[in-house]
Specification:
The N and C termini lie far apart (about 50 Å). This protein has one domain. A four-stranded mixed β-sheet has the order 2-5-1-6. The protein has a two-stranded antiparallel sheet with strand order 3-4. The chain is built from six helices and six strands, in the order H-E-H-H-H-E-E-E-E-E-H-H.
Length: about 200
């Protein structure tokens, strides 16, 4: 009987390891495929947080020709470098119209994000390529969305079918409920350790 129980426990352990390993690998594939937009406010004052959303809208509206699916992880740096001046100009015009003189920058970066949900999808923790918009000191709370697959409004006026952009395994992961899937927490722990390790 003890041998049977041991065999069952060992089998469950091995199955769990395989499941988590597969989840980690798929999470990495998601990070390789997803492009994020990250907008940082000057500060956490009500005025700066409100301005952040106006800048976000201006950048999305000005760049809607590329943010509707044309930009992705592979071409993000090239696309943003080409369109940067008009995106920055649109953002700075909004800043000035609202009575501020903050500098604005728009660039592509590799950045760590924790596990986050956007609408009905959840992105696992780890480093993602992101189009980053910084306002002034960029010391306030941020706003983010998924730029590819195109889910940022107004670029994606219709609900994006992520099945068109992600693999079947990736879709299964992003549509999981993180509250009931411990693998998201395991991935987050794993990625936090990696992130801290690479920073040293």
């Amino acid at each position: 009987m003890k041998k049977f129980i041991f065999a069952v426990v060992a089998g469950l352990f091995v199955t769990s390891i395989i499941s988590v390993s597969g989840f980690i690998k798929t999470s990495q594939n998601i990070r390789n495929d997803v492009l994020r937009l990250h907008v940082l406010a000057n500060s956490d004052t009500v005025e700066d947080q409100d301005l952040k959303l106006k800048v976000r809208d201006a950048v999305l509206e000005e760049g809607k020709d590329i943010f509707g699916g044309e930009i992705n992880v592979e071409n993000a740096e090239e696309k943003i470098a080409t369109e940067k001046s008009r995106l920055v100009d649109a953002a700075e015009n909004v800043v000035k119209q609202n009575g501020f003189d903050y500098d604005v920058d728009v660039f592509v970066t590799d950045e760590y994000f924790g596990t986050r949900s956007y609408g009905d999808i959840t992105l696992p923790a780890g480093n993602y390529t992101a189009v980053k918009v910084t306002i002034g000191e960029s010391a306030g709370h941020n706003w983010w969305c998924v730029m590819f697959p195109p889910m940022c409004l107004p670029a994606a006026e219709d609900k994006t079918d992520i099945d068109m952009y992600l693999s079947e395994d990736e879709v299964k992961v992003v549509k999981c409920n993180p509250e009931y899937d411990v693998r998201f927490k395991i991935v987050e722990w794993y990625e936090q350790i990696k992130h801290l390790w690479t920073k040293e």
